[in-house]
Amino acid sequence: MRTHLDCLPCFLKMALAGIRETCPGQEDIHEKVVKHWAAGFASADLSESPPSLAGRLFREVAEYVGEIDIFKTQKEEANKRVLELLPEVKNKVQASDEPLLAAMGVSIIGNYMDCAVMGEYDWEAELENLEHGLDHAAFSKFIHEVREHKSLLVLGDNAGEIGLDTILTGLLRDEGIDVTYAVRGKNILNDATVVDAKVVGMTDLCEVVTSGVDTPGTVLNRCSPEFLARLDESPVVLSKGQGNFESLWGVRPDVYYAFKVKCPVVADVTGHPMKTSLFCQEK
Q: Buried (b) or exposed (e) across 132-156, using 16+ Cβ within 10 A?
């Protein structure tokens, strides 16, 4: 998916929020970062995917603040809150008529834990409707393929969200499915890394690997060769989150996508309104 003009002000919003959190009161640094990004837009190649372009610009922020995780606090808070709610949510999923479908619903709702839309959506309130709106036919096809191959590669997205993903991972593991969960290679936005996978217990449930990317999405030319080989060898791939969708839509038609539609651009691309819990495969 290419970058749209509407993506650019969204990038600035994320950059300013992150830099204000990391460097409170340092208006000179805030100004330098915003001006740097704005200047970068002038030469930006909009044929790049949004995660590819945003990843490059966020890497350049290090020139002003050093190699620090500017969304560290938000990630820790999201993981903590999910771990507090996890026992209750697990019970609700297990009591569902279709636990796997309910677990997928939970995973998608968790995609609201995104620094780009922090405070705009109430993910906890939406946990009352776990399977709401999901495409049952697409999900049935997905589960059939997972069971047939007994294998699944999950491309993770955000911190916090990864904790809710442990429910689906656990259910699949109980069926004898070999699940591998991929996280980002470096800190970027509030995306999950190996640190987050350990905090929420994902590393206790399945193999966790890094894609090697330093972008807020699985940008293939930023992935490690080892991960690309694993991706090519995986018979079933589940892409979590809008950033992974933006990176892979139009590139890998075999991938299943599970995410919340959180911006007008993606709503237009998918043909689904904002707030939709979307489970789909490119046609």
A: eebeeebbeebbeebeeeebbbbbb
